[in-house]
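Continuing the series of single-chain predictions for the mutant panel. This is the parent chain; the variants come on the following pages.
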Amino acid sequence: MALGNSYKTAPGAGTLAALILVLIFGSPWYGDWVGENTDPETAGGWWLRLLHWPSWQFDTSDSLRDVVVGDLRAILLVLLTFIFLVLLPGSQLARARGTISQLFAGWAAYIFAGGLASLLATLFLANPSLLGAFRSAGSGAQYGLFVGWIVGLASLGGRRGTR
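Parent structure:
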């Protein structure tokens, strides 16, 4: 039994891609670089800045609550991506691995995860508001829409869970 294909599931591959995206592009180092070297008024600069949306930080000047909320959004994004990849039926109903339904299921999972992670993290702010929660969920869904195709591509060809 080869280990390569026996454990590559669509939810596992998609979650790993989400984790890598959050760890690399959500890092404070990437945030500093993108802030200094890109123009937000260009499409490329806007997208590179969008990649930094699920940021996490180690800044000691921020309050503990702000640090936890920022990190909570990144953690929830990865966890909810896995949950939605497991729950979305598109690739479960596909007859063959690698179909376009797996791409769309992974992409949709990241959109839903981004919106819900941001919504839930907003609830932990000092003075959460309904309008703030809606705006936050919209920014998370926007991130998922423009970055989620990467998670969708990563989940292509994976099996749907264990036998």
